Amino acid sequence: MGVDCVRAKSYMDLHREMSADIEAERKSALDLLGPSAASVRAAVAELLAHRTFAYPLSVLPVIVHAVETGEPGPAVPLAVVHELWWTSACYLDDLADGQAVFAAGGLGESEALLATVISGIPLPLLVVQSPRIPERARVPLSAEIVRCWITATEGQLRDLRADVGAATVDAVVTAYLGKSGAPFSMVTAMAAQLAGRTVERVELWREFGNVFGILWQLFNDQQDILTGRDEDLANGTVTYLLACALEEATPDSVGHVLELHSAARRSPEARAALTGVLLAPEVLRRYEKDISGFCDRAHGLLRELGGDSVYLSVLRDLVDQASPMLLQAAEPYVRAVPAQR
Question: Under a CB-based contact definition with an 8 Å cutoff, are residues 176 and 217 in contact?
């Protein structure tokens, strides 16, 4: 695959080295739709071209497979599965949030929605059932895709139906395990299954994917505030940071926080006031402590798993990059690059 393992110091390095292989695999995946589905192929290709990602986490299953075997190449189809899943999920998330969705390249809303369905479910199933995947692994990998969609949908529904008045950090974690933990644990478990590992080891990788998914959601939540997008506040999302603020609030001030959260959907002034509550020092101390706890858990799982030391180092670096405490209690805030899922 032309990968110089010695120089692969970060997941970004590895993605750069393997980007041509991933692109070729993506084109091969589109070909699996067959000659009679030219319109479907074109629509999915347009959707994929429109949805780009600032953070190329599609290499996660590649790294996990390399940790297990020393070889990243065989897991490249799983990198494409990751891209297809997240492209579909991000579009559906925008739709659920009521955002305008006409900007999916040259596709109309209905065309983009149809392409999203194909991108998220049938095409990933075709990828893992293709000759590029050993026959022994095809059924387990297909089952992982189905399992992921069910779990992720449960998490999204919990998010949409969340009762902010009853919000706790434990309840938010449960939702995050679906929204973000499910897709990451899907690809980490799939990579271990592709490597032919035991059920016990696959489950450890699944747990790692779940913890990493929580970390990445927390990272994404912080970016939403730092970039000034404030989509979570405008959508009324019950985030982990909001749950921390409610748990740290005095009984007399809980009602005020809930009122701001309700008003933030339509009022920039309420969003600004609620942001001030979320960035209170005592809230951020709790938030930072919990991020550190999730990071420690991820590193603990990697120590328990072991494996190829070079690629394990790449994975440790990825955990650290997903675990910074970016928010500060003092203005001004540094505006970061808009986060991508």
Answer: yes
Burial per residue of 169-195, b for 16 or more beta-carbon CB atoms within 10 angstroms, e otherwise: bebbbebbbbbbbbbbbbbbbbbbbbb
334 within domain boundaries: no
The answer to whether residue 221 is domain-embedded is: yes
Residues 301 and 81: their CA atoms lie apart, in Å, by 24
Residues 88/117, Cβ–Cβ less than 8 Å:
yes
CA atoms within 13 A on the CB side of 324: 9
Phi, psi torsion values for 185, nearest 5 degrees: -70, -30
Neighbours of 101 (CB within 10 A): 17
Q: Could you tell me the sign of the dihedral formed by the alpha carbons of 154, 64, 196, 309, in that order?
A: negative
Q: Which residues contact 115 (CB under 8 A, 6 or more apart)?
A: 40, 43, 44, 46, 47, 104, 107
Residues 311, 65: Cα–Cα separation, whole Å: 9
pLDDT tier for residue 104 given thresholds of 50, 70 and 90: low
Task: Write down the pTM of the prediction.
Answer: 0.91
Whether the bond between 122 and the residue before it is cis, its omega within 30 degrees of 0, is no
Structure tokens given for 262: 């309700």
d(CA 336, CA 236): 22
Residues 6+ apart with CB under 8 A from 153: 178
- Residue 331 resides in a domain: no
Q: How many domains does the chain have?
A: 1
Amino acid (one-letter) located at 120: G
pLDDT digits (tens, 9 = 90+) for 110-148: 888 899 999 999 999 999 999 999 999 999 999 999 999
